[in-house]
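Changelog note: in this version the structure field was regenerated for every chain. One regenerated record is shown below for reference.
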Amino acid sequence: MSYKDYNNNLFGYYGYINRKNYIINILILTLIFFGLSFIRFEIFQPYITYKFLYNTLIYIIDFIKFVAVISVLSVVYRRIADFSEGKSNKFKQNMKRIFGIFFLFPFFYIFCRYFIDIIPIVTNILDTITIFVLIPSGIILAVIFSFIKGS
């Protein structure tokens, strides 16, 4: 598949994605993530006789949520590539910076937060910026991307 082909791939960062497929994929992945987040798997713990099986279940659920987040990043990146096609290189670079700041940084910060927990003041500042600025802005941008017409 060439870079200019439209595709519905959830794990690739190549190609483009049109508005309809973008909206459908984002909704499906969001429902999977929040659906798994709101289900209380602790109620199964008394019925599972081995703690290992319960821990395995929790690990699998967390892994599926992680895959859903990676897929959202892929879909958003390909949507940015779609509506950036035909624009100037400066616009493309700015869109890549926006993707890095509002989508990649919060993702990596949340998953790597415990490694920088040694410096509490830095962690508190980054927590505040990430939770109250970057994540809501990223959600708003993801919605805006569904309305921008591609090339």
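Spot check on this record: The chain has four helices and no strands. The CA atoms of residues 32 and 148 lie 25 Å apart.
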